[in-house]
């Protein structure tokens, strides 16, 4: 099939700048994987092989490729090869002010939660050309890229772009060549000199897994230093950075909690406002309401499993409580000092949500001690228990 692409004018309206509306007020001063069947395995392997091939366009004039990529929505393979997990349905600073060739690049992916799993929903890119100071900001999503890919597949050509321009004096076609991936589930943006590339994959629903919900960033310039973790979650090539950072915390030993702290304790990341108000609230409370780093660590220690541990998320969603909403209330309560009489009723909301779930380490005992919602039973259950008599 022959593909033909023509650029068209794009809207500059930006829903991400609208005012958030939520029951929690913002602080005013500042804002085990399931076994795969054979077909599943082959398709995932083929897709992985394509992304590996993309990364392996590695030597352009002797320049080696650095690649950071995400798979299955929430798995992040850093530049050093370490596999981290971003268990948070929000936006995060994957690539931050990273130079590659003549460009300074920012990549901010957005994760969403479908009630079962996390999946890659959006990606915002900011690109500045060093030589002339011109820039481009744009975003893509599974809907934006999906419409482009669908029309391309069904009609053989399209006037659509796989992105929406947000700002800047450069156009998408000034910087990139772009093409669909072989499986039709993603699109690749390649800088015209092949200095760097970015791919964004749509999810293909099968069961409860999203094997193609991914993105990948590759820099083919080994003359530039990589920005370290946690300034960008992709980090650099130094080994064991995330493991060593996690070892420095006394209240948890799981990398997921560390990544969650580092993703939200960053006021420069513009969170969802219309789609996920509670990401914005969680970030704002952690940055501005918590009085110091010690309070932020106590907050993450108490709250992280609400969004970061699958069994606990499953229990909350079973009782129709959105994990990110309960997490935001937990952050609000903890950053306020976990008062027994909570004027915002955040403790009450957390207490009602976690009641009848297995114990949330630290959080359950704090809620019990506060007696902020004494009408609940706090009957802790093992995951294997049903709803029959205890």
TrEMBL record:
Keywords recorded for this protein, A-Z = Membrane, Transmembrane, Transmembrane helix
Q: Write the protein's name.
A: Uncharacterized protein
Q: Where is this region: Disordered?
A: 1-21
The record lists the organism as Pomacea canaliculata (Golden apple snail)
Keyword field contains Membrane: yes
Residue ranges spanning the membrane: these are: 49-66
């Amino acid at each position: 099939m022959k593909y033909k692409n023509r650029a068209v004018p794009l809207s500059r309206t930006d829903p991400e700048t609208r005012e958030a509306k939520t029951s929690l007020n913002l602080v005013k001063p500042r804002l085990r994987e399931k076994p795969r069947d054979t077909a599943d395995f082959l398709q995932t392997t083929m897709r992985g092989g394509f992304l590996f091939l993309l990364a392996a366009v590695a030597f352009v004039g002797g320049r080696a490729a650095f690649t950071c990529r995400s798979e299955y929505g929430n798995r992040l393979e850093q530049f050093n090869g370490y596999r981290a997990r971003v268990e948070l349905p929000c936006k995060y600073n994957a690539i931050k002010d990273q130079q590659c060739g003549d460009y300074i690049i920012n990549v901010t992916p957005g994760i969403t939660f479908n009630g079962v799993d996390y999946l890659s929903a959006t990606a915002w890119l900011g690109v500045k050309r060093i030589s002339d100071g011109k820039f481009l900001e744009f975003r893509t999503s599974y809907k934006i890229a999906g419409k482009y890919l669908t029309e391309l597949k069904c009609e053989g050509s399209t006037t659509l772009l796989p992105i929406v321009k947000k700002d800047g004096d450069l156009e998408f076609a000034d910087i990139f060549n772009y093409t669909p991936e072989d499986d039709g589930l993603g699109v690749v943006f390649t800088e015209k000199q092949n200095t760097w590339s970015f791919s964004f994959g749509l999810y293909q629903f099968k069961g409860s897994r999203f094997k193609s919900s991914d993105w990948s960033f590759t820099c083919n310039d080994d003359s530039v230093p990589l920005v370290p973790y946690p300034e960008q979650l992709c980090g650099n090539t130094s080994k064991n950075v995330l493991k060593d950072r996690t070892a420095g915390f006394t209240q948890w030993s799981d990398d997921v909690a560390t990544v969650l702290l580092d993703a939200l304790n960053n006021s420069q990341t513009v969170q969802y406002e219309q789609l996920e108000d509670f990401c914005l609230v969680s970030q704002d409370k952690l940055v501005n309401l918590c009085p110091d780093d010690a309070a932020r660590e106590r907050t993450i220690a108490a709250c992280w499993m609400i969004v970061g541990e699958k069994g606990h998320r499953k229990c909350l969603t079973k009782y129709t409580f959105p994990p990110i909403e309960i997490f935001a209330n937990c952050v609000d309560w903890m950053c306020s000092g976990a008062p027994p009489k909570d004027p915002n009723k955040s403790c009450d909301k957390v207490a009602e949500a976690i009641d009848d779930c297995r114990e949330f380490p630290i959080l359950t005992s704090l809620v019990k001690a506060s007696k902020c919602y004494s009408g609940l039973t706090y009957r802790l259950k093992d995951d294997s228990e049903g709803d029959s008599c205890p």
